Amino acid sequence: MTHKNSPEKVHALVWEDGCLRMLDQRLLPAEEVWLECTDVESVVEGIRGMAVRGAPAIGIAAAYGVALAALEVSHDPDWRDQIAAHVERLAQSRPTAVNLFWALERMRQSLAGCNSLGIARSVLTAEAVAIHQEDAEANQVMGRLARDLMLENASGPFAILTHCNTGALATGGYGTALGAIRSVWDAGFLSRVYADETRPWLQGARLTAWELLREGLPVVLNCDGAAAQILRGGEVKWVIVGADRITANGDVANKIGTYGLAILARHHGVGVMVVAPSSTVDMSLPTGASIPIEQRDGCEVKSIQGKTIAPAGVEAFNPVFDVTPAGLIDVIVTERGVVRRPDMSGMARLFNDQASGSVPGQASQ
Ligand SMILES: CSC[C@H]1O[C@H](OP(=O)(O)O)[C@H](O)[C@@H]1O
């Protein structure tokens, strides 16, 4: 077991000599265990089983999966088809985060330019590393943009509430919503950050609290049901979340519970900010109604880390994302810029190059 996480820097994924090391987030915060992925199937299982999760991190892992595919296939005449079949397997791992399909399309385009397996092996590895690095850099840019926007009207430190985990564990590093929170903290304007526990998978309790506590940020863990009372108190100025897919009109798919949080925030006059890189934008879908929402096994609702908390026979409803309409979002921050009061024209201004539908969004049937 190799520890790659230092107190100041957390990684979800580490690529080393043809091996993708994946921090198994299912075991956090109790244990830091690294899975050694040397074939595509282990990456597919890691994404599907949520050893790695978080929209950008899923895309990055899938990109490395394609690089592993090139290393895995043999020098047969149909090597290109074999890689394409592995890409298809990766595309089936989880349906909602468009970052997965965006990354796979970028790897497909890199593969198309390779005329030998030897070249494909080095080109695809370099492309996956680039996707990883670009995401980490985008998060730094978004952190600055979000911080500057929040400080526009700030007379002093303020509190933020966040949902799920959008930190280094969900991205190429630093985080999206958590990147914005880290940037406000570094500027001396963060009084407290409330982290929703985020039932049923507990990304907030197990991951966000872990990330922020190890860096000394003033994180307070709360039950999802306490968010209304917290927002009513007036201390929180912003609800900041990530995204798994943003459509052409600014609708946002994100962790289940985000929609309700946005309604609460609007009711209490609290700003709603979505922070997400352009790899999360899917201009091929006109509204959030077309976003495929992942339904996971009801056992995730009826148990916690293997301990049953509900009668075995009860039916469970477990959609793990919901869609927040653009009208409930005050601002979307991307590395390309900021969209205030998001709508079709605001999104097109920044993402017109994708408006042609070139983004491979797997729309629901
Ligand atoms: C940086 S965006 C992370 C995004 O992904 C999470 O979902 P999951 O943990 O199921 O992959 C959640 O929607 C976060 O907002």
TrEMBL record:
Pathway: Amino-acid biosynthesis; L-methionine biosynthesis via salvage pathway; L-methionine from S-methyl-5-thio-alpha-D-ribose 1-phosphate: step 1/6. One of its GO terms (biological process) is L-methionine salvage from methylthioadenosine. The keyword Isomerase applies. Catalyzes the interconversion of methylthioribose-1-phosphate (MTR-1-P) into methylthioribulose-1-phosphate (MTRu-1-P). Also catalyzes the interconversion of 5-deoxyribose 1-phosphate and 5-deoxyribulose 1-phosphate. Part of a bifunctional DHAP-shunt salvage pathway for SAM by-products. InterPro entries: IF-2B-related, IF-M1Pi, IF_2B-like_C, Initiation_fac_2B_a/b/d, M1Pi_N, NagB/RpiA_transferase-like. It comes from the Bacteria. The active site is at 244 (proton donor). Belongs to the EIF-2B alpha/beta/delta subunits family. MtnA subfamily. Keywords: Amino-acid biosynthesis, Isomerase, Methionine biosynthesis. Substrate binds at residues 53-55, 94, 203, 254-255. The record marks 164 as: Transition state stabilizer. It catalyses: 5-deoxy-alpha-D-ribose 1-phosphate = 5-deoxy-D-ribulose 1-phosphate; 5-(methylsulfanyl)-alpha-D-ribose 1-phosphate = 5-(methylsulfanyl)-D-ribulose 1-phosphate. It is an enzyme of class 5 (isomerase). GO terms for molecular function: S-methyl-5-thioribose-1-phosphate isomerase activity. The lineage of its organism: Bacteria, Pseudomonadati, Pseudomonadota, Gammaproteobacteria, Alteromonadales. Its EC number is 5.3.1.23. This is Methylthioribose-1-phosphate isomerase. The gene is mtnA.
